[in-house]
Amino acid sequence: MRPRVRKLYSTVFLTALIVISACTNQKPKPIDVGQDNCAYCKMGITDPRFASELITSKGKVYKFDAIECLVAYYQELGSSEQNNTKLWVHDFLQPERWLSAKNALFMRSSEIHSPMSLNLLAVANDSERVKVQQQFEAESINWKDLLDYVDKNMQ
After folding, report:
1. Tens digits of per-residue pLDDT, 45-66?
2. What is the layout of strands, in order, in the sheet containing 120-123?
3. pTM above threshold 0.85
4. How many angstroms separate the CA atoms of 110 and 105, rounded?
5. What region, left, alpha or beta, does residue 16 occupy, with left being phi > 0 and alpha being psi -120 to 50 degrees?
6. pLDDT tens digit string along 3-14?
7. Are 55 and 47 in contact (CB under 8 A)?
8. Which residue, 95, 102, 16, 94, is CA-closest to 55?
9. How many CA atoms lie less than 13 Å away from 6 in the CB half-sphere?
10. Quick one: average pLDDT of 110-119?
11. Residue 136 class from Cβ within 10 Å (0-12 exposed, 13-18 middle, 19+ buried)?
12. What is the C-alpha to C-alpha distance for residues 102 and 88, in angstroms, rounded to an integer?
């Protein structure tokens, strides 16, 4: 193949890759409280403090009314699908702020009533965690234990 044709093919290929990757936005979409429904339980999303999203590798967005619905949906995916998704949760103390589930600190408290009654929430950092612990007698829960807790307690 001539160098000029090879360069043309390379340019077309790279351009196509850039266009495809631009189409799969991995940032969360805004929740339309009172209008959006949970992809798992189908209830309306009414409290942004507990709202969450899962975004597939192809850019499809699934919205949830509670962290427990996000986790239950996530657990139903195959492991290859799980590895290629982005999980987002709202910060309980600042519900307008999205947190990557990888970086969020998860908590549970019987004094906080989430939409699906497992009473899970997420915060951004240790100072928020301490604030929630003091105000609501909440306990921290890591990702693995969160998965187990939802698996055992979701109907």
Report:
1. 999 999 999 999 999 999 999 9
2. 120-123, 105-108, 139-141
3. no
4. 17
5. alpha
6. 665 555 444 444
7. no
8. 102
9. 3
10. 94
11. middle
12. 8
